[in-house]
Amino acid sequence: MEWICVRKIRKYADRDFVDYATTLEKTTKWKRKATSMLKAKLEKMKRGEQVWVLEDNGRAVGFMILVPNADNSLEVDWLDVHPDFQRMGIGSLLVKKAEKIAKAKGKLALSIHTWKSNRQMINFALKNDFQLFETAKDFYGKRKDALRFRKPITP
């Protein structure tokens, strides 16, 4: 018997909250605080910010929050893939979706950020043609710097 994988990217719906919180529990240091952190993030979202979901055979397993920046770029603010589905191209598919959205909105670039010590995310960004453009001091709090990566969007 052959297994068929059906993947779909769509906008976030309330029904995705539990899957998203569960993914954050497994992919962040928040653990049990993941539910409240996600709830707070969703409540504070501003106009123009969007959450996208990648479904794998009907299960929400990949998530991305897109935020427009003042410099006419679009930022992938949060990019999370459930650990059982990592290294299967899901993050790259979400980034490709972000590129299409950025292009449709006339954005000049797509950017992404990560902790300076997050080797996995740094390698992911480079593999997906992002270039390091900034070290953002105290981005995540005092003495918690981030690396920011950017890729141009061609019209």
Brief summary of the model shown:
By secondary structure, this protein is of the alpha+beta class. Helices cover 29% and strands 33% of the residues.
What is the count of helical runs? 4
Helix-strand makeup class: alpha+beta
Total domain units: 1
What is the CATH topology? Aminopeptidase
Walkthrough of the structure:
- The protein is an alpha+beta fold.
- The protein has a single domain (7-152), classed as Aminopeptidase.
- Helix content is 29%, strand content 33%.
- The chain has a seven-stranded mixed sheet.
- Strand 4 (73-81), helix 3 and strand 5 form a beta-alpha-beta unit.
- Helix 1 (17-27) packs across helix 2.
- The longest helix has 15 residues, at 90-104.
- The model has no long low-confidence stretch (mean pLDDT 92).
Quickly list its features.
155 residues; alpha+beta; Aminopeptidase; 4 helices; 7 strands; 33% strand; globular
SSE topology:
Blueprint: E1 7-11, H1 17-27, H2 34-43, E2 50-56, E3 59-68, E4 73-81, H3 90-104, E5 109-115, H4 119-127, E6 131-136, E7 146-152
